[in-house]
Amino acid sequence: MPVLVVGSVALDTVETPFGRATDTLGGSAIFFSAAASVFCPVRLVGVVGADYPLEKLGFLEARGVDLGGVVRADGESFRWSGVYSYDLNSRETRETRLGVFADFRPRVPKAFRDAELVFLGNIDPGLQLEVLEQVDTPRLVGCDTMNYWIERRRDVLLELLARVDILFVNDAEARQLAGDYNLLRAARWIHERGPRFVVVKKGEHGAVLIARDWIFFAPGYPLEEVFDPTGAGDAFAGGFLGHLAWVGSCEPDDLRRAMIYGSAMGSYAVERFSVDRFRDLDANEVAERVREFREMTAFEVRLAAEPHV
Amino acid sequence: MPVLVVGSVALDTVETPFGRATDTLGGSAIFFSAAASVFCPVRLVGVVGADYPLEKLGFLEARGVDLGGVVRADGESFRWSGVYSYDLNSRETRETRLGVFADFRPRVPKAFRDAELVFLGNIDPGLQLEVLEQVDTPRLVGCDTMNYWIERRRDVLLELLARVDILFVNDAEARQLAGDYNLLRAARWIHERGPRFVVVKKGEHGAVLIARDWIFFAPGYPLEEVFDPTGAGDAFAGGFLGHLAWVGSCEPDDLRRAMIYGSAMGSYAVERFSVDRFRDLDANEVAERVREFREMTAFEVRLAAEPHV
User: Fold this and answer.
1) Would B281 be classed as within a structural domain?
2) A308 in a domain, yes or no?
3) Cβ contacts of A183 on chain B, cutoff 8 Å
4) Do A185 and B299 touch (CB under 8 A)?
5) Domain count, chain A
6) What is the ipTM of this complex?
7) I need a surface site. Which of A65, A169, A199, A202 has the fewest CB within 10 A?
8) For chain A, where are the E strands, in sequence order?
9) Is there a contact between A225 and B183 if contact means CB atoms under 8 Å apart?
10) Among the ranges given (A189-203, A294-308, B216-230, B275-289), the one the predictor scored with the smallest mean pLDDT
11) Cβ(A46)–Cβ(A71) under 8 Å?
């Protein structure tokens, strides 16, 4: 089952304590696609400028990412440039040049419109809505957003949320959106606006899925070297929805596993610059990491001994 | 099997966004004992001043906390006073009055010396060593410490670590001790100094146990109301070692479960001021929360479907 994704297709310039990469493949739709395409076909909707090296997306096409929804427009590609702190826990944006992205109006090709799984990457919620309106009968809609839209486009964002099944946000965004410091209460607030599932991403601390009547935690995969955190959240969403597309089901057990696949793909994203770690990644390698996650979280409840009190 | 604990026995004055509590029961040894005594007998070594309301520890004695190692000295009891921020994620110490704690030299009563499980609460590492030297043949030694000792008593702390099996620290302390931002590498550094197990506590994000060849994550229990974070770390250690004492074993499976019991007891600590939540807590209630932890972390690896790549 294919996943439809809309989001940014960018050229990133990233500086970390370990080095610098200039004009590398970036953007939410690219990180999502790189991760999801390990598991399922992906249909990508986005825009690039005249200067975008589309041939560099060949490895994604080879893995079943259909670029039929990527429009090449006159002008410069979207560029983002940022510097990470020594501990990689904070970053400063040096420059955001929207380029052709400033006038982007997503158009979903006819052949893409029967998609059942949809991921709305972090772009203007108005555009996210436009995409949804072009999809026939989406079964499961995932959506990302950020502080910028929460502050400036709150009304449209709330209109969108009413049609979203899974909201992917980080902890600060969940708190800001709901105006509540407590994550659990913030998730309840979001549930009331539409999304049945809130996935709160917490960086190295992992992620938590809060459903209306159950909760699931996925730890962050412990790495001795974190190289470049850019794109981890989108790779998480790619692993999550990629897993659901792969199994063709979204029962609670599938969603729980999807959290682990998400966390695994987020961990690969940070091991190298850009989407480099995904180039040769195959599903068996991911399955091995998923088994490691199980080792790191599984325990048996023991009721044999007599309690002291 | 009993656990021996040495640590502070204090009177805490705590202000949170939800209220203020004056001169309530506090200190590492008290929080540890309140949690551990749900599962096993506890032997407490500490000091209180002439003004300490020992009768208020009656509920602990009733649950098998032997206060035979608590000395009453001339002078004032150890007092700590602090204020938490609105989000409870940071706190400011208003006052620390050591009182009789300034001249404390722990003496382990003869009847306590055959203890096999020992917890060295967060006090001067020199005193922690003195306690260890008075215990006949400890099988498993857990130890807590803090930035103050890491900075000022590094040599003695390292001497102590060589005799410790499990070091309980928070993430900032692990990083500071090892001088490495990466937690996994920091834990490897600590392993080389003695402790086979490093338990890194991360507040609301849970805790991770890093052994030499395996890792286990326990999430933080999601609470809609966090009332007072004081003592959560000591309650964690109490639940952890209390569970091991209860089952009388410290195999990897027991340690994994101990992490969950620790996280559960940490979550109870923050639900009320002081040790109030532990007063009526029984092992069945804890077992129910442990089952909830299992619900929140268990997933099945699925290998039925054919991977896409």
Assistant:
1) yes
2) no
3) 204, 222
4) no
5) 1
6) 0.94
7) A202
8) 3-6, 10-16, 19-26, 42-48, 65-72, 78-84, 91-97, 117-120, 140-144, 166-170, 197-201, 207-211, 215-218
9) no
10) A294-308
11) yes
